[in-house]
Amino acid sequence: MSYTEIYGVKNNGEVVFVGEVENAWRGAMFVWKQLADKYEVGGDLFGGFHELWAMADTGRLVDYENMVMKSTFDNVVVKREDLARLIMSFRKYGELNPNSSFLEQAKIIEEEILKDGNMVGVCWNQISVNENPWCNGFDEEADEYIPYNTTKQNKHWYM
């Protein structure tokens, strides 16, 4: 089964795994399909959700929906100062959409990142079966992945 993986950004910029929620289809794809249906913009697994994604930050989505949807975008990082708003948005979305994974994600973010003073942000790998975007190569000698670092790499963006 696939997972939505949640990563924390440490104060030195290093991205580390903090938790996962089962069935990645309850995350990004759930949001995209639900919002596409609600706003009647179409989109499916094969047809794409470009019209929906283009609605980000236009004012067409309710604020909590906008934040939840943007959290599903590739390479996004949410800074510590925005975590309370993110958690509130995840909880609101999760309460209205109990088959999604956002209540579980909110709990992980609150317990593993917000309560940890050494964490300065959160980011995701929306589906565990793809390549982890928060690795910066593989160290053959140490036989381990090299973590992405937000202070040294630049493929991420801040919400």
Describe the protein's architecture and organization.
It is a single chain. This protein has 159 residues and is an alpha+beta fold. It has one domain. Helix content is 32%, strand content 24%. The protein contains five helices and seven strands, in the order E-E-H-H-H-E-H-H-E-E-E-E. The protein has helices at 28-38, 50-53, 63-71, 83-96, 102-114, and strands at residues 3-10, 15-22, 76-79, 119-125, 135-139, 144-147, 157-158. It has a five-stranded mixed β-sheet with strand order 2-1-4-3-7, with helices on one face. Helix 3 (63-71) packs across helix 4 (83-96) and helix 4 (83-96) runs antiparallel to helix 5. The protein is globular. 30% of the residues are buried.
In short:
It is built from five helices and seven strands. By secondary structure, it is α+β, with helices and mostly antiparallel strands.
Label this structure with key terms.
159 residues; 7 strands; alpha+beta; single chain
